[in-house]
Design a protein that fits this description.
single chain, 4 helices, alpha+beta, elongated, 6-stranded antiparallel barrel
Length: 351
């Protein structure tokens, strides 16, 4: 019995002696980068399309029925050229009526003027009263006012007759056409669009992340995809204040400073933005980790223990990003293996 008790007491000791301690977890190798200010230029390349600086919608200033369409889509037109015509019959009759009314009012004015002069002579001799002379003066003033009104009406009718011919307000190219013979249109209804000759601009769409840098850029390099060997210079003319609700991009128009005949309307182009040299902290994209929607990096301490430091991303430049906040010059940050680390973990530097 004593031997059995001794054996039972020895079993736990034997089991403890046979259990080996767990080996320490191996240190994870990481690559690091020492924080420093580096120089570089922020750039952004956007696709665009060539447009005319001035593109005018064309419409008749009066309504009516279209009798002629004298321009074709893509046709080059000159200033003053007739592009379309309305049936002028109604406006011709109105102009003739206005001229007739003007002639009648002029005859009444001549008669009223003669009567006034006659009564003025009679009044000087005392043959008529002052009241009678005042009546003739009033009749003359009314005839003068009537002539002015009919002249204005006649002039208006003649202008409307002239409006039945739609002319080009400048030289350019017809870029849109909705003109059909026999079509009845209202005044101001667009039937054509004219891209003026001369100045050209590039239309692009800017993403939200590049909006601030794009707005601050002074110059743009422009290349036509059909002629990539030549570079044009441009300046920002207009940037939309609101984003497109579908694409979340901002429409922008860049004026081409040295456009030539090779830059045809509708051509595709590439616009490159240059913001110039700057000094900033630049990190590879592999160094950035995100926790709860906040970007950050692993900072390596003197004891090779990593601690997460939040940062602010100021912009992306290819495979790198510009970072601000949370970092100081000389800090070591992990650039490879960052996604596998945890707070307070001890690491070793990869060879």
């Amino acid at each position: 019995m004593r031997k059995l008790s001794s054996l039972l007491l020895a079993l736990p000791l034997l089991a403890a002696c046979g259990k080996q301690p767990a080996p320490p977890e191996p240190l994870r190798p990481v690559k690091t980068l020492r924080i420093a200010l580096t120089s570089g230029s922020s750039s952004l390349t956007l696709p665009g399309e060539v447009h005319a600086r001035h593109e005018t919608p064309l419409a008749f200033r009066v309504g009516g029925k279209i009798s002629e369409c004298k321009a074709e889509l893509g046709e080059t037109v000159r200033q003053g050229q007739v592009l379309a015509q309305l049936e002028p019959n109604d406006y011709q009759l109105a102009a003739q009526g206005g001229s007739a009314n003007e002639a009648q009012a002029r005859s009444q004015l001549v008669l009223a003027e003669a009567e006034l002069k006659r009564y003025q002579a009679l009044r000087e001799k005392g043959f008529v009263s002052a009241a009678a002379l005042d009546q003739k003066q009033a009749a003359y003033d009314a005839a003068r006012a009537s002539l002015d009104a009919t002249q204005a009406n006649s002039s208006e009718q003649n202008r409307k007759l002239g409006y039945t011919a739609l002319t080009a307000e400048g030289s350019g190219v017809i870029t849109a056409l909705d003109c059909n013979i026999g079509q009845v249109i209202n005044a101001g209804q667009q039937i054509m669009s004219l891209a003026r000759s001369g100045a050209r601009e590039i239309s692009v769409f800017v993403p939200e992340s590049s909006l601030t840098a794009f707005r601050a850029s002074k110059t743009f390099s422009i290349k036509l995809n059909a002629q990539p060997e030549k570079t044009y210079q441009g300046t920002l003319r207009e940037l939309s204040a609101g984003a497109d609700p579908a694409t979340r991009t901002y429409a922008a128009h860049i004026t081409v400073q040295d456009a030539d005949d090779a830059m045809q309307l509708g051509m595709s182009a590439t616009v490159q933005m240059q913001t110039g040299e700057d000094m900033a902290i630049r990190l590879p994209l592999t160094a950035v980790i995100s926790r709860d929607g906040t970007p950050g990096v692993w900072k390596l301490g003197n004891d090779n223990i990593v601690h997460r430091v939040p940062i602010t991303v100021a912009g992306v430049e290819g495979d790198d990003l510009r970072a601000t906040g949370g970092l100081a010059l000389g800090d070591l940050v992990v650039t490879a293996g960052a996604n596998l680390l945890r707070e307070g973990e001890k690491v070793k530097l990869a060879p």
